[in-house]
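Why do we bother with a discrete structure alphabet at all? Because it lets us treat a fold like text: something you can write down, compare, and reason about line by line. To make this less abstract, here is a complete entry for DUF4295 domain-containing protein. Read it the way you would read a sentence in a foreign language you are learning: slowly, and without expecting to understand everything at once.
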Amino acid sequence: MAKKVVATLKKEGGVSYAKVIKAVRSPKTGAYTFREEMVPSPLVQDTLKK
């Protein structure tokens, strides 16, 4: 299983954000690519479940 990384960032406008980095395997080549997303902290677990 690929590693999942979550970095918590400073609050902006009362909402704290986290940068989520996921390793995603390409169905075509089998190589891993990294997908980065900025999400509000309460939604981190929902983002990782996708």
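What the structure line is telling us, in plain words: Residues 44-49 form the longest helix (6 residues). Residues 18-49 form one domain.
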